[in-house]
Amino acid sequence: MIIDISDVLQSVNKERNEEVNLEMTTFSSKLGDFPITQKAPILLHLENRENKQLFITGEVSIEAKMPCDRCLTEVPVDVHFEINKELTIKDGSAIDEEMEEMDYLIGFELDVEKFVYAEILVNWPMKVLCKDDCKGICKVCGTNLNGGACDCQRTELDPRMAAFQDIFNKFKEV
Ligand SMILES: [Zn+2]
Ligand SMILES: [Zn+2]
Predict the structure, then answer these.
(1) How many beta carbons lie within 10 A of that of residue 18, not counting itself?
(2) Ligand 2 centroid vs 156 CA: distance in angstroms?
(3) What is the distance in A from the centroid of ligand 2 to the CA of 47?
(4) Neighbours of ion ligand 2 (CB under 5 A)
(5) In 3D, which of 120, 124, 123 has the Cα closest to residue 24?
(6) Residues 33 and 99 in one domain
(7) Which of 60, 88, 95, 150 could form a disulfide bond with 143, CB atoms 3.0-4.6 angstroms apart?
(8) How far is the centre of ligand 1, averaged over its atoms, from the C-alpha of 78 (Å)?
(9) Which residues contact residue 131 at a Cβ distance below 8 angstroms, ignoring those fewer than 6 apart?
(10) 160 C-alpha to center of ligand 2: Å?
């Protein structure tokens, strides 16, 4: 969705609300392709402040399917955050000082999809777990350990092996 924001950029202290619906059904990044299973309409608030700054605020709430970091099971994850964007207005056009090449605003045309995409990208969860105590998958046979232990597990449960494992883990942390 592209909205013309010339009115906000050209009239001092002008404010405007715009309700937008995201078109994307999949979120694709370097990390992979993630199906978006739910998305709420976004109420964007645009504000010209003294012809010096353009503020774009709003709230994003989507749910996407992502694989658990430990067991790789796909789980729905809420991605919820506030947009708080501040652009500089110079000679009637807006500049994003944080971005080398601003692709979401060309002239007066704000490409909402591209704008929100960049915001989702920086707010993407760093860690995804299907549950806090996910046991992961066995590194030897690939069994999902949440469903029960595999045969390889028995050796790891041996206290002497566990002690060895601790030393090994400590070694890895250095
Ligand atoms: Zn898991
Ligand atoms: Zn195993």
Answers:
(1) 17
(2) 10
(3) 57
(4) 138, 140-141, 143, 150, 152
(5) 120
(6) yes
(7) 150
(8) 16
(9) 146
(10) 18
| Ligand 2 centroid – CA 55 distance (Å) | 53
Ligand located closest to 132 CA: 1
Q: What spacing in Å lies between the alpha carbon of 90 and ligand 2's midpoint?
A: 62
Domain co-membership, 29 together with 74: yes
* Domain boundaries, position 170: 137-174
- Judged by DSSP in three states, 147 sits in helix
For residues 143 and 116, membership in a common domain is answered with no
Q: What number of CA atoms fall less than 13 Å from residue 154's CA on the CB side? A: 2
Q: What is the pTM of this model?
A: 0.82
Q: Point out the ligand nearest to the CA of residue 151.
A: 2
**Which long-range contacts link 99-103 to residues 24+ away (Cβ below 8 Å)?**
none
Beta bridge partners of 62: 39, 79
153 and 84 in a common domain: no
Mean pLDDT of the chain: 90
Q: Both 52 and 79 in a single domain?
A: yes
Structural domains in the chain (count): 2
Query: What pLDDT score was predicted for residue 8?
Result: 97
Query: How far apart (Å, rounded) are the C-alpha atoms in residues 9 and 101?
Result: 19
